Amino acid sequence: MTESEFLRRYRSSDYPKPSVTVDTALFTVRDNALQVLMIRRQEHPFQGKLSLPGVFVGMAETLDEAAARALYSKTGLRDIYTEQLYTWGSPERDPRMRVISVSYYALVPEQSLAPPEGPALFCPAAEIAASGDIAFDHSRIVACGIERIRNKVNYTDIAFSLVDEEFTLPELQRIYEILLGQKLYKANFRKKIAEKIIPTDHYTSGAPHRPSRMYRKRPETAG
Amino acid sequence: MTESEFLRRYRSSDYPKPSVTVDTALFTVRDNALQVLMIRRQEHPFQGKLSLPGVFVGMAETLDEAAARALYSKTGLRDIYTEQLYTWGSPERDPRMRVISVSYYALVPEQSLAPPEGPALFCPAAEIAASGDIAFDHSRIVACGIERIRNKVNYTDIAFSLVDEEFTLPELQRIYEILLGQKLYKANFRKKIAEKIIPTDHYTSGAPHRPSRMYRKRPETAG
DNA sequence: ACAAAAGTGTTCGATATACACCCATGT
DNA sequence: ACATGGGTGTATATCGAACACTTTTGT
Q: Looking at chain B from residue 2 to 21, which residues have their Cβ under 8 Å from any Cβ of chain A?
């Protein structure tokens, strides 16, 4: 039997088929805290509880596309920093039926976000991660996202995804401090990121102290 | 409508349902190289090509259980170090139908493995990752596993999963060197792992040089 | 005695930590 | 003038890279 013949005879309904969703934790830094976009559920199951924005994976889209679709529908934003987190497959995680959830996280600067509307709202991520009253296993997904972010801050440039295109170093340092959960020394911080940034000739103004210079992220040097 | 009423009326067949598999890359160090267990496919699709051992996820089992099941059926081993890698969801990755693959990797010491039988065989992982002639996207999964291992070697204890319960430091160092792809200095290596090991009073013998002491892994200190 | 590999102490340089000080602005 | 936070130089501690040397076995 040739491969094409095999494929013609193949009956995919012979195999068990769970549903697959993509649930996305959208993080931003607001009010000196890492916050995550949650949805107050209007429908069963878990009506009234908070959950992450999620979509069923369409039969013709990739998982990344499904995540982008979910984010676009909630924020109107495209080209957000997005990364797959983990896949959750406990048979009891959804009371309706067997649902396997591929979780993603995304990072956006606060400035690029419109105020959330309708059932969407931002919540301190640490509180969601610690709460026992969140829909599905989404509390654990948020916890997983926080951990991943904290791990990657020090050896990648993900923190830059949380500031605008042009930013000051005090701003950027505050982001690092919030993600790491600790104060950093100004001088040391600047030495460490010096190679990752490019100065502009813009300065802030209006504050009752010395203006701060604005910078851009230096494009990654390949190799 | 109450939640239980909602659940009674819910028709899960209204939603798209891809198939979900778990594909597991079982790594070991053999012949001074990182090797991975591959299966020569007896059936379509990709008949005759190499693929990773995989199973369809049963409707009542977790993903971890599916991975353990796949490993047990190929190796007869239980309680192997196993970790989820990444989930692959391109619509074209399987020519039969839409299949989403949750990939895992596992690490075992060579000594605990029986010689592979039937269509199973060990292949140098780097070759599989570089090959363009592997079934599905399994070449990329292996590449992803190699990268993950290399990243985790330095800040976790995964290398210990590749040696027996009792091991010598030259043995362990060779594992590290193979995973990292570079020679290490004996003295520095020993200083670094000194806190992770406990000496036994066993020694190797028979070799035409000084015997080496055997060690065990020190149990993780919580906190 | 010698080869071979196990095992240990010490130096050197890079990096991170900590602190001290200067600078520019609004009030 | 001064309070406030932006911005920079310098000393110290810590860690890893590199090397030199000693030890124990089989032949």
A: 3, 6-7, 10, 12, 15-20
Question: What is the share, in percent, of chain A residues with pLDDT greater than 90?
Answer: 86
Region of residue B176 (left: phi > 0; alpha: psi -120 to 50; beta: else):
alpha
Chain B contact present for A129, CB below 8 A: no
- Tell me the pLDDT tens digit for each residue of B155-196: 999 999 999 999 999 999 999 999 999 999 999 999 999 999
Which of B43, B46, B60 lies nearest to residue A91, judging by beta carbons?
Answer: B60
Domains of chain B (ranges plus CATH)? 16-153 (3.90.79.10), 158-217 (1.10.10.10)
The residues facing A134 across adjacent strands are: A50
What's the CA gap between A73 and A24, in Å, rounded?
12
- The closest alpha carbon to A152, from A187, A176, A169, belongs to A176
Phi, psi of A96 (to 5 degrees): -75, -45
CA B157 to chain centre: 14
Q: How far is CA B52 from CA A132, B111, B152, in A?
A: 38, 21, 22
> Model's pTM, two decimal places?
0.93
| Strand C reaches within 7 A of the B69 CB | no
Residue nearest to nucleotide D27 (CA to C1'): B208
In one letter, which amino acid is B188? N
Which residue, chain included where needed, has tokens 């919580």? Answer: B222
Tokens of B88: 């692959």
B181: left (phi over 0), alpha (psi -120 to 50) or beta: left
Q: Count the Cβ atoms, other than its own, within 10 Å of residue B132.
A: 5
